[in-house]
Design goal:
The protein is mostly beta strands. 8% of the residues lie in helices and 39% in strands. Helix 5 packs antiparallel against helix 6.
């Protein structure tokens, strides 16, 4: 998969003119005011700042506009205000001009500037020394003058464009001067209607003054003529690569964007390189729409849009991504939302633009858009695994070579496990040179990266190249190091987005909805994703072609495929294994913690459903600090250990590659039926591992499991047991001794009934207490929330401990049920933070 285009810079979101390595100076005028020396910043980074002559006591101002702020001058009386801009030439402005110089920017003229005869715009005639060029308006029309080293005029042309300048209109103007080819062309564009006018290509004689040391002056000439109106995003390039087509494309694309528009509810200027909701007096807008510039589209295959953002789950979001496409940057298709996995729905055209909706439920917080990528997904040369061949991809993700002569092509894949490709190629094959380490190889829709290449000569003199490649998602193990992160009662989407941030991969479909509280200490993205699957359950699916990661409750289907001897099954092996059979299981958590206190004083659980023999095992669960979770975990594990392990390995043919047998298709994770009368076997089972022989599909090896438990189901024992709560501990005696308690909770033992407490559904049990005679009690009701709360005002401390003695009886949670302690922390600045501590 190739990345077709990326939008990530400030100019991509605002439409401002971009800086290039050829930029000599660029003035955006985004400051609220000049600095203490009346200087305005050069945004090219070359420190060629403008001095504002006539700032104080005049109408000069920096106002909010469409591209951030813009500079406005001489609105009241140009001849008396005399405001203008000057940047001092350090001697390098016009040296080494190269083949081409380009100057241009936005103007916002007043009636005065449109109606007067001579209005200076971009001027080098003020000295010192001789000028090189002079951009001005003559009776409201664009005029360009060029000079040689002696100061003689070698070109003077006033244009007569089809666009008429009007008071308070915004216009983009530019001049391209080809130094050695001695050609000139001018451009005038009207923001109000998108009109574009370009002059004919004109020529001049003589040589430009390349020894010019004159300063650049904007809006004044000879202390007599002054410009009245606004300037924005003015630039000057030498040895420029810009063409007239580039400038027109910039204009047509720029007028689409609104990230710098003062009237928009989004802001792409406050934090360069990102887009947020606009804040007014510290309060963010509830929602806002960003319109971007146009980007390249023109896809070879299908398109997918991925958006990188920062957000707070359930509070802030990038709530909608829409696209529109065009062939000419003028006529655009209707806006269409992308698919659930970012699939491009708009027609394939030369250009694409985006409309991104940002939203928040809390106006003190904002989402942050960081990047938009358009991926070009080539159509695979093969549609099915059977008889497919490896396709080597180039650095752009395009096909480089189809390895028709590859053999022994084996793809080995596991549910929630490995995914590798191995094949061989004759060493003297003409396409051998296309193979290299770290290059990508495509098999149908899956992408692999070559890790090892082995050239081997056998005893018969035959030389063969052996290739080992890993699925593209293995690269996630090399991601930037991830900091430890705590997730409190979160669904898997939140940690998955954290894991994928900055990797170039995006979150796909997530059907697992369990909430978990845990701390991630893994260092790379792939390890975190594996931990998420382990904790939340489900099937982790990597879509390498689209660079998406899905977490599905169950990834397969009941395919209806039948494996039967003499039909499509060559051999079968059934293994029943009791070597690890256990009927009594001890489990030990943190610091040797057991669940004996809640399990009838037994430190073990038992299951004699298969065997009455006592067979003892021990489970190390040192990450558990909650006895309830430890007990659930032990019961779940014992359910596996107390029965024989049954597995099936069969050699079978994929009949779906044959015409008329398409209905026999199956894939990894599917449920299939295995039938063998000789073994008295007829069972529905799941494909959990496959070794697929692409060249000879009849030699495919499958590993099957009869355990069809859907791990992502919230009712599964593993889901409940895997919720490891780092913030909830059972204190041992030494830890209790180390505590120096000062209890901020009043009436914490229910000695005075519900005094100091706000109760909703809780009562006091006067006869069953631990440290006293009473306790608080609630009987759960499905679909109802019951709570007991108290507000405390503790002294200033670095940390606090919440401790409680808890007991439960026949506790069952609903689909979205939670049992625990919610702590709302209010800070001195008035902000709040909520943490939930799961207890069950």
């Amino acid at each position: 998969m190739a990345i077709k285009s990326i939008l990530t810079s400030q100019t991509d979101f605002t439409g401002e003119f971009p800086v290039s390595e050829k930029t000599v100076a660029l003035w955006r005028f985004n400051e609220a005011s000049p600095d203490s020396n009346n200087m305005l910043t050069d945004d090219s980074g070359h420190n060629r700042n403008f001095f504002v002559s006539g700032w104080s006591g005049t109408s000069a101002n920096l106002l909010s506009g469409r591209l951030g702020r813009f500079f406005r001058q001489n609105i009241i009386n140009p001849t008396s205000e005399k405001t203008h801009l000057v940047t001092t030439n350090d001697g390098s402005f016009f040296s080494d001009l190269g083949e081409k110089i380009v100057v241009g920017g936005w103007i916002n003229p007043t009636t005065y500037s449109v109606g007067q005869t001579y209005i200076p715009i971009f001027n080098t005639r003020q000295g010192p020394g001789q000028p090189i060029f002079y951009v001005s308006l003559f009776q409201g029309r664009l005029r360009l003058m060029l000079y040689n080293a002696s100061g003689s005029l070698i070109y003077d042309q006033t244009e007569t464009p089809t666009i008429t300048l009007k008071n308070n209109g915004w216009y983009f103007i530019a001049s391209i001067i080809e130094v050695n080819n001695k050609r000139v062309q001018n451009l005038l564009c009207d923001r109000s209607d998108g009109a574009v006018w370009q002059s004919p290509v004109r020529t001049f004689t003589g040589d430009l003054n390349q020894s010019c040391i004159a300063d650049i002056v904007m809006g004044m000439h000879a202390n007599t003529y002054y410009y009245a109106g606004g300037f924005d995003d003015w630039f000057y390039e030498k040895d420029s690569l810009l063409t007239m087509e580039d400038l027109i494309s910039y204009f047509k694309s720029s007028i689409l964007a609104n990230g710098g528009d003062s009237a928009a509810d989004v802001d792409a200027l406050a934090d360069p390189g990102s887009v947020m909701l606009k804040a007014t007096s510290g309060v963010y807008a509830q929602s806002g729409q960003l319109f971007t510039i146009a980007a390249a589209c023109s896809l070879a295959g299908t398109g997918r849009v991925s958006v990188t953002s920062e957000y707070t789950a359930g509070i802030t979001a990038i709530s909608l991504v829409e696209t529109s496409t065009s062939d000419d940057l003028s006529s655009w298709t209707e806006w269409q939302a992308v698919g659930a996995s970012g699939e491009l729905q708009s027609p394939n055209r030369e250009y694409i633009r985006y409309r991104i909706t940002l939203s928040t439920q809390d106006t003190s917080k904002t989402p942050k858009l960081l990047e938009i990528q358009l991926h070009d997904i080539p159509k695979p040369p093969y549609e099915r695994l059977g008889f497919a061949r490896p396709v080597v991809l180039d650095t752009n993700g395009a096909w480089e070579a189809v390895l028709e002569n590859a053999f022994d092509i084996i793809v080995t894949s596991e549910v929630n496990g490995a995914d590798i490709l191995e094949f061989k190629l004759p060493f003297h094959d003409s396409k051998r040179e296309a193979l290299d380490n770290e290059k990508q190889v495509q098999i149908v829709n899956d992408v692999y990266r070559i890790r090892t290449i082995t050239d081997e000569k056998s005893s018969d003199g035959r030389v063969v190249t052996q290739v080992y490649a890993e699925a593209a998602f293995y690269d996630l193990s090399f991601s930037a190091e991830k900091e430890p992160m705590e997730f409190v009662a979160e669904t898997p989407e939140v940690p998955m987005r954290y894991a994928l941030l900055g990797t170039g991969w995006s979150l796909g479909n997530v059907t697992v909805s369990t909430k978990r509280t845990w701390q991630s200490t893994e260092k790379n993205a792939l390890s975190i994703l594996r931990a998420i699957q382990n904790i939340h359950g489900g099937d982790l699916i990597f879509d390498s072609a689209n660079r998406l990661v899905h977490l599905l409750t169950f990834s397969g289907t009941d395919s209806g495929a039948l494996f039967c001897y003499r039909k499509n099954m060559k051999s079968i092996q059934r293994v029943v294994d009791t070597r690890s059979l256990i009927t009594r299981l001890y489990a030990y958590g943190k610091g040797g913690m057991t669940f004996a206190s809640i399990n009838g004083n037994k430190e073990y659980v038992e299951d004699y459903s298969y065997s009455s023999e006592v067979r003892v095992g021990t489970l190390d669960a040192s990450s558990f600090s909650n006895p309830y979770q430890l007990l659930e975990f032990a019961n779940m594990r014992l359910a596996q250990y107390a029965k024989p392990r049954v597995s099936y390995v069969l050699s079978a043919m994929d009949l779906s590659v044959l015409t008329g047998y398409e209905h026999e298709a199956w894939k990894l994770g599917d449920i299939v039926t295995v039938d063998d009368k000789d073994l008295n076997l007829s069972v529905k089972t799941r494909v959990v591992r496959r070794q697929y022989n692409l060249q000879e599909p009849w030699k495919t090896v499958l590993e099957l499991s009869t355990t069809l438990r859907e791990l992502g189901d919230s009712s599964a024992g593993w889901d409940k047991a895997a919720d490891i709560l780092s913030s909830t501990d059972v204190l041992d005696r030494q830890e209790l001794k180390d505590l120096v308690p000062f209890n901020h909770l009043r009436n914490s033992r229910a000695d005075d009934g519900l005094t100091y407490w706000l109760s909703s559904g809780f009562t006091v049990d006067p006869n069953n207490g631990v440290s006293g005679t009473a306790s608080f009690k609630a009987e759960g009701v499905l679909g109802m929330t019951k709570s007991l709360s108290q507000t405390v005002y503790p002294a200033s401390r670095k940390s606090y401990t919440f401790s409680a003695q808890i007991a439960s009886e026949n506790l069952q949670k609903g689909p979205n049920g939670q049992v625990g302690i919610e702590v709302v922390i209010e800070y001195e600045d008035g902000s709040t933070e909520t943490r939930f501590i799961d207890l069950f």
